[in-house]
TrEMBL record:
Signal peptide: none annotated. The keyword Signal does not apply. This is Iron complex transport system ATP-binding protein. It comes from the Bacteria. GO terms for molecular function: ATP binding; ATP hydrolysis activity. Keywords: ATP-binding, Nucleotide-binding, Translocase, Transport. Gene3D superfamilies: P-loop containing nucleotide triphosphate hydrolases. Residues 1-220 form the ABC transporter domain. It comes from Salinicoccus halodurans. The lineage of its organism: Bacteria, Bacillati, Bacillota, Bacilli, Bacillales. SMART domains: AAA.
Length: 237
């Protein structure tokens, strides 16, 4: 469970002010137009600011029990690449080695063929799958993934969303996403952010209306429900 209370952010032209936002166990999609504050929200939760990285202290029943990085895994929107093998990258931030978990992640993300390649040479989608394995190796209870579907082909978009949904049985997973249809198909809740404000807070995908989505993105959109999925159309196309 992650509860955010009285979170304030002030970049001058851009401000965010969140009174109260909670994410329980499950997969939670965060939607919003470019520049609405999705990445800033994740960075603020972690305690990152523009010129420093300062992990937030976490308190339980009045006592400090650690800092955010001990409880949260974070997959940023963009990550620097350097000369290190995919295998080393996957294990880089794990507190404990776990060979069984490692092997299962290699299978889940189909990484067998490039564990010994340096991450510099991987395609965008291959690197994204390596990053998913890396944060899964951390075995934290909360995972925040910023635009995880970016760079993934259709097969891996669904494969990774399925993996996130399975992990969300026992974890809190928050995913900033652009593909609203994919988000509504897989997520347990949808949160919408616009201009630094939460305009829909953790509602079930069934409750997201075409009007709400159109308002969020400032374009006319229609949502249609299929058997097990949602599709989103731009009205004027
Ligand atoms: N360190 C910063 N200093 C000043 N403005 C920033 C900084 N980080 C983000 N912003 C601004 O805050 C707004 C929200 O950015 P961001 O959270 O990255 O949006 P999103 O992830 O929803 O596309 C944007 O207008 C962006 O330019
Ligand atoms: Mg962003």
């Amino acid at each position: 469970m992650l509860t955010i209370e009285k979170l304030k952010l002030d970049y001058g032209k851009f401000r965010m002010n969140i009174e109260d936002l909670s994410f329980g166990k499950g997969l939670h999609a965060v939607l919003g137009p470019n520049g609405s504050g999705k990445s800033s929200l994740m960075r603020a939760i972690l305690g990152y600011s523009d010129d420093s990285i300062k992990m937030r202290d976490i308190y339980y029943r009045g006592s400090k029990v650690g800092t955010t990085h001990q409880f949260l895994s974070y997959l940023p929107q963009d990550s620097p690449v350097f000369r290190i093998t995919a295998d080393e990258y996957i294990n880089m931030t794990a507190d404990h080695q776990n060979e069984d978990l490692y092997q299962s992640l290699i299978e889940t993300f189909e990484l067998e063929n490039f564990t010994d390649r340096t991450i510099e040479v991987l395609s965008g989608g291959e690197f994204k799958r390596v990053q998913c394995a890396q944060i899964a190796m951390e075995q934290k209870n909360i995972m925040m993934l910023d635009e995880v579907e970016q760079g993934l082909d259709l097969k891996y978009q669904h494969q990774i969303l399925k993996w996130m949904k399975a992990e969300a049985d026992k974890k809190t997973i928050i995913a900033n996403m652009h593909d609203a249809a994919l988000a509504m198909t897989y997520a347990d809740t949808v949160t919408m952010i616009k201009d630094g404000r939460v305009i829909a807070s953790g509602i079930g995908p069934d409750r997201v209306t075409s009007e709400m989505l159109s308002d969020c993105y400032s374009i006319p959109l229609t949502i249609e429900r299929r058997k097990d999925s949602f599709v989103v159309f731009h009205n004027t196309l």
